[in-house]
Structures are given as C-alpha cells and as structure tokens.
Automatic annotation (TrEMBL):
The keyword Oxidoreductase applies. It comes from the Bacteria. Belongs to the aldehyde dehydrogenase family. The keyword Oxidoreductase applies. This is Aldehyde dehydrogenase family protein. It holds the Pfam family Aldedh. Signal peptide: none annotated. Keywords: Oxidoreductase. The active site is at residue 254.
Length: 484
C-alpha cells in the first residue's frame, strides 16, 4: 500500500503477541523537513521491558523446539513481504532517517534478502560427528539456541541492521526482544508489523521502544537475557559490555570506525576518487564503514585532492525524497551539532579546509550540511575520532609502508581499503591492515550480507555478525558422548 509522504504513524510496542501502548510517547521527525512528524511512538520503561523479556523467556521452549522447516518458512514469508513492499518501506526509511530514496529502497531490499538468506540457514544449522578417542564411543557436536536474546540497534541502517540480528536469532531458535533507536521507531515498528504476520508463537519476537539509558540498559542487565547483540557507539557499547560481563551473559558489540582508504601512486585516480566519494559521503557519511581518512601517497596527493574537491563540489545535498539528490540531511539536530563541532575543532587545530562543512538552507527546513573535506595531520582529532557525518580528511603518506602505518594508527579497526594496481601492495595491505574487513579498489562502505561482518580493536567485540558465521553468536555448542 502506497502511503502519502505526509502519513503519520502511530506506533505501539509488540509484547507477547499483542500491540501495547507505552508508559509515555515520543515522536520521530523527518530530518529533511522538521515540520513533519513521521511517527508518534509508545515508549517503554523498565517494567514494560521486563514484561517483554519474560514473554520471550516463556516462548523460548516452543520456538526452540520448532522444526527447521517451520523457522525457514517464517523467515521466508517475512523476507518476501519486505521485498514486495521495498518501495513503501524505503519511503518510510527515507522520511525517518534521511537517506536518499534510492539508498533507502536498496536498504529495504537488503533487509528482505537477509531474511531470505537466513531462511536457508535455518535448514543448515548443523553440527559434526567425530571419532572418539575411546573404542565404542561416539562423539557429536550440535548447536542449540542461546536462549533469550536482546537486540539493540542504531538509527543509521534502521531496516538492515535489525534484519541481520533478528533473522539469525530466529533461524537458530532463540526468542528475542528488539529495541530500535529512538530516532527510527517507525522503521522498527514496520519490521515488527511484518514479523507479527509470520505466526510465530506469542512472545518469540517482541519490540520495545524507548530510551537507551532505560530500556537498553534494562535489557543488558536483565538476568533472563542470555545474550545481547548491540550496534551503536563505543561509549554505549562499553556500558553494555560491563552490564553483560557482570552476569556472564554472551555479548556481541559492533561500534564505531575511522576507516582508512589508502590511495597509492599507481592507482587509477578516477576510480580512487569514486571510492572516496562513495565511501566518505554517500548515506551522508553516516556509516560505521565510512572512509573518513583518505591516506594518499605523496606523488598523487595534490592531483587526488583537486579531483576530489571538484567531485564533492558537484554533489547535490537536499531533501531525501527529491530526485537527483546525492546526499540527504544529517539524521538529527544532535548529530548535526556533533558534525559542526568536529568541523570547528579541525579548523582550530590547524587542519586545512578544502571544501564544505557549512549548514545549508533548502526549501524545507532540515539538517542540511555540505560535504566537508580537510587536509589533516595524523594527530588532529578529525583524523582520529569518529564524526559519523559527511566529513573526511586527507593525510599525506611518504610511501606504501607509511600509508599502511597511518592506516593502522587508530583505536578503531573495522574496515580498511586500498586503491592500487599492484597485486603485491594489495596483498600486503590485506595481510597487515589491523581490521576485520579489507577492500581493494572498492569503497570501504558497501558489504555483502552472506559473509562475516565486524572488526577489531575498539570497533567490535565478540563473534562476527552476518553470513553463516552468525550462528556462532546465536547458538551454543553442545558436545555429546555416547556408548551404544
Ligand atoms: P548509540 O550508541 O547512541 O545507540 C545505539 C543503540 O543503543 C540505540 O538503540 C540506543 O537507544 C541504545 N543505547 C543507548 N544507551 C544505551 C545503554 N546504556 N545501554 C543499552 N543500550 C543503549 O548509537 P547511534 O547514535 O544510534 O549509532 C551510531 C553509532 O553506531 C556510530 O558510532 C556507528 O559507528 C555505530 N555503528 C556501528 C556499526 C557496526 O556494525 N560496527 C553499524 C552501524 C552503526
């Protein structure tokens, strides 16, 4: 069903198979047009969160004993509905989070494909059979659900990230409580609405919305929550880590990045500029994998900067629903201020301003920011701290070894890219970049959903997300010995 852009959702929690009002209500606002409320949503408190966790705990046995076929059918049905409604869901996403409409529709399609992928994985949750050291004894290793899992998601990929947590959790037979970010409740609700039609046993899937400090923290601390999968900022990831470690719950954290894109002197410069533009500025730079550090070898430094400046000057910033817009608005006022503060700090620390970083006026009042580029030194904050906006800096490297050293000179370790025509340099970089994902002649942002996703150092903690390796988090190994 096609909705008019002005449609306002009234969004409730989904607990134990019923739609529930909250203790208070909140609103999500369209960052492209601040006059427009996208959703009024029910906000839970600790008590309502507790009800959702208890509902999941009660439902766990029924769902964990379902057949793989039953789980596969449910996930396939969810994936089919998301794919069939990708345009409508993309429109909602673009209005609530501010991605351009084509980016948002692609994300909705991605969410559907993820459910389809895990429909297949539900059939392949397997184990192994191994010869025992002892005669007459049989050993097998099987996977069982972890139990009740809490899934805490950020706002920047409001359909895809929940999909890549919810789908493997259900495929592996867990019951769950999902908490979306306060900025994107309608996207969370839209997924819950679709999942509610898959006839899961009541309580298997629950949606609670509200503040991270209250609802998120309550989930991380709840004694009946066996595992927490969190994606968000490093500071909140640390809080979740402490709360879960204190009670020995399983935990998976995906946090920030300060991803380098290295450009060597032998690179195809046009391709390198393309990778930088896509990686640093598309999706308004609001991607954990954004290429916010462009490390360029000295012989091509000036030519690269000149071409990049020319390209970003031609990018169109505007309303997420306007055709031809390359960069939508920043997601909210707090995030915009964070970007502006980082831009001001870059200037104060002596980074050389190349382009952008100004607030823009558009026909509708929104959080518009022109893409910003600086020439920085490795010690500058703009080269070290995650901004999470359309802001990038260029660092000059003496040679390939220096470029690799600069790439690794960060507390983060999510993704690292290199543009080069040398196989030797590419393979060396792949081996020695201290990250979870590497890219050669590709933007650092833009990943496949059927392979592991995650990083090292301050970017990630715990088992990988996505692909068949997701089962490593959402299941527990049991070893059985048997003498017939
Ligand atoms: P955030 O940390 O503010 O919020 C993330 C989620 O955690 C929200 O649902 C929030 O309500 C909840 N939360 C907040 N405080 C909490 C607490 N004390 N306990 C439990 N939950 C709490 O992050 P954000 O602003 O929504 O997202 C941006 C961040 O997410 C960036 O740092 C970005 O790099 C990161 N991110 C990482 C990945 C990845 O996979 N590595 C992907 C996307 C975004």
């Amino acid at each position: 069903m096609k909705r008019s852009p002005e449609f306002q959702h009234s969004v409730r929690q989904y607990i134990n198979g019923r739609w529930e009002t909250g203790v208070t209500t909140g609103r999500s606002i369209n960052p492209s047009d601040l006059r427009e409320t996208v959703a009024e949503y029910a906000r839970a408190d600790r008590n309502q969160t507790d009800l959702a966790v208890r509902a999941a705990a009660d439902a766990l046995r029924a769902w964990s004993l379902t057949t793989p076929q039953r789980r596969a059918d449910a996930l396939d049905q969810i994936g089919s509905e998301i794919l069939a409604r990708r345009d409508e869901l993309g429109l909602l996403l673009a209005r609530e989070e501010g991605k351009t409409l084509p980016e948002a529709v692609a994300e909705a399609a991605r969410a559907g494909q993820i459910f389809k992928f895990f429909a297949g994985e539900a059939l392949r949750v397997g184990g192994e059979s191994i010869a025992s050291l002892r005669p007459g004894v049989h050993v097998d290793v099987s996977r069982e659900p972890v139990g009740v899992v809490a899934l805490i998601a950020p706002w920047n990929l409001p359909l895809a990230i929940p999909a890549w947590k919810i789908a493997p959790a259900l495929a592996c037979g867990n019951a769950l409580v999902f908490k979306p970010s306060e900025l994107v409740p309608a996207c969370g609700w839209a997924l819950a609405d679709i999942i509610s039609r898959a006839a899961l046993p009541a309580g298997t899937f629950n949606l609670v919305m509200g503040s991270g400090r209250e609802v998120g923290q309550a989930l991380a601390e709840h004694p009946l929550v066996d595992a927490v999968s969190f994606t968000g900022s490093a500071a909140n990831g640390q809080r979740v880590l402490l709360a879960t470690a204190a009670r020995r719950a399983k935990v998976q954290l995906e946090m920030g990045g300060k991803n380098p894109l290295v450009v060597l002197a032998d690179a195809d410069l046009e391709l390198a500029v393309d990778c930088a533009v896509q990686g640093a500025y598309f999706s308004t730079g609001q991607r954990c994998t954004a290429s916010s550090r462009l490390i360029v070898e000295a012989p091509v430094h000036d030519a690269f900067v000149a071409r990049l400046k020319q390209r970003i000057a031609s990018l169109k910033v505007g309303h997420a629903l306007e055709p031809g817009v390359d960069i939508g608005p920043v997601a909210d006022g707090r995030q915009l201020q964070k970007n502006l503060d980082a831009i001001a700090a870059a200037g104060e620390e002596g980074a050389e301003h190349v382009w952008g970083g100004e607030q823009l006026q558009r026909p509708s009042e929104g959080h518009y920011l022109s893409p910003a580029l600086f020439l920085a030194k490795p010690a500058h904050r703009i080269a070290r701290e995650e901004v999470f906006g359309p802001v990038a800096c260029v660092l000059r490297a003496d040679d390939a070894d220096h470029a690799l050293a600069l790439a690794n000179d960060t507390p983060f370790g999510l993704c690292a890219g290199i543009c080069t025509n040398s196989l030797r340099h590419a393979m060396h970089f792949r081996r020695h970049a201290r990250v979870g994902m590497t890219m050669v002649n590709l933007p650092t942002a833009g990943i496949d959903y059927h392979v592991p996703f995650g990083g090292r150092k301050a970017s990630s903690y715990g088992p990988r997300e996505q692909g068949r390796h997701a089962a490593g988090f959402y299941s527990i190994l049991k070893t059985g010995y048997l003498r017939a």
